[in-house]
Write a structure and sequence with these properties.
This protein has about 350 residues and is α+β, with helices and mostly antiparallel strands. The chain has two domains: about 15-170, PurM-like, N-terminal domain (60s Ribosomal Protein L30, Chain: A); about 185-350, PurM-like C-terminal domain (Phosphoribosyl-aminoimidazole Synthetase, Chain A, domain 2, Alpha-Beta Complex), CATH 3.90.650. The protein has eleven helices and twelve strands. The protein has helices at about 20-35, 75-80, 85-100, 120-135, 200-210, 225-230, 235-245, 260, 285-295, 295-305, 320-330; strands at about 60-70, 105-115, 140-150, 160-170, 185-190, 215, 220-225, 250-255, 270-275, 310-315, 335-340, 350. The strands form three sheets. A six-stranded mixed β-sheet has the order 8-10-5-11-9-12. Helix 1 (about 20-35) packs parallel to helix 4 (about 120-135) and helix 3 (about 85-100) runs parallel beside helix 4 (about 120-135). The longest helix has 17 residues, at about 120-135. The chain is globular, with a radius of gyration of 23 Å.
């Protein structure tokens, strides 16, 4: 038996399915205005092109370094606080740090913003933060994707990811190959949780302790939202300064996995990091979280950065020179440890 064809009683447009092309056009207009401010000499195409072009010039033997990442559940805090102008900056700085540890100069950035129902102003705020981060790092925002997908996301929520490409001359690439026992590890302070550990932090602050996002927390001197939305900082200027002086042998961006899992990523086989836990003051937010959850020390160290956003490796004989350069650029730092011979499978030793 033939199936009866059923038609809608009235015309159905795309917006009836939940996609508003007019709102998308408004969002693109805001995105274009933000992105234009980040364009560098290498940008060859305009926002809206099918592909983004970038001209590599004045490079002799460049190695392209790329990375992709997201903001994670830090976005949940942005939703609660209705504050969307900083998470994009966090995303850019995270990606910049990831390629800078290999010595790369950031060239260009692309973003992916996905939402169930598009709000052009929220999208504009997010991309405004991305553009601010790109401009601060000398990186061009040359393209991306804004996807409106009804039914995919809870109302008022979105997802955000980014992709970065940088370049480094092959003979300047940081590989960690020259790191030796006796080299010194310098810690650089974070500006907060950066972009990792948020699932546990949210559970402890909001579910266990019962704080509201706008509630002042005496131990922190700010609200829960203000603490959790502190911008993930960039270490580009610091790494550039030590690379230009020929003093940097390796670097580790302390993200998910903390000092424990990230420090070994820059070390050659057979070497380990000895971390001196009394050489820096752990910020109050980490002590509060540890207390709220009675978190085991090992898990605490692998979940949060504990106030250390980057660890740099320099020659033990030139550590004073590195420290002097960092002081000249007003970069707070501290000797967090030393490179030692590995003892079995343990790559990080806390003392």
């Amino acid at each position: 038996m033939a199936t009866k064809k059923v038609s809608a009683s009235k015309p159905i447009e795309y917006k009836d399915a939940g996609v508003n092309i007019d709102e998308a056009d408004r969002a693109v207009s805001l995105i274009r205005a933000h992105a234009k401010k980040t364009f560098t000499a290498g940008v060859m195409t305009d926002i809206g092109s099918f592909g983004a072009g970038f001209l590599l010039k004045d490079w002799k033997n460049p190695v392209l370094i790329s990375s992709a990442d997201g903001v994670g559940t830090k976005l949940k805090v942005a939703f609660l606080a209705n504050k969307h102008d900083t998470v994009g900056e966090c995303l850019v700085n995270h990606c910049v740090n990831d390629i800078m540890v290999q010595g790369a100069t950031p060239l260009f950035f692309l973003d992916y913003f996905a939402v169930g129902k598009l709000n052009a102003q929220v999208c504009g705020d997010v991309v405004g933060g991305i553009a601010r981060g790109c401009a601060a790092n000398g990186c061009a925002l040359i393209g991306g994707e804004t996807a409106e997908m009804p039914g995919m996301y809870t109302e008022g929520e979105y997802d955000l990811a980014g992709f970065i490409v940088g370049a480094v001359e092959k003979d300047r690439m940081l590989t960690g190959a020259t790191i030796r026992g006796g080299d010194v590890l310098l810690g650089l302070p974070s500006t907060g949780l950066h972009t990792n550990g948020y699932s546990l932090a949210r559970k402890l602050l909001f579910d266990v302790a019962g704080y509201r996002v706008d509630q002042m927390i005496p131990e922190l001197g700010c609200t829960a939202g203000e603490e959790l939305l502190k911008v993930h900082r960039s270490y580009k200027r610091t790494i550039d300064a030590l690379m230009d002086a020929g003093l940097l042998k390796g670097a580790a961006h302390i993200t998910g996995g903390g000092i424990t899992d990230n420090t070994p990523r820059m070390l050659p086989k057979g070497l380990a990091a000895e971390i001196h836990t009394l050489n820096w003051t752990i910020p109050p937010v980490y002590e509060l979280l540890r207390s709220l959850g009675n978190i085991p020390v090992d898990d605490w160290r692998r979940t949060f950065n504990l106030g250390v956003g980057m660890i740099l490796c320099v020659d033990g004989m030139k550590a004073a020179d590195a420290s002097e350069i960092l002081a000249e650029i007003d970069e707070p730092h501290f000797p967090i440890g030393d490179v030692i011979k590995a003892r079995g499978a343990e790559r990080v030793v806390y003392v």
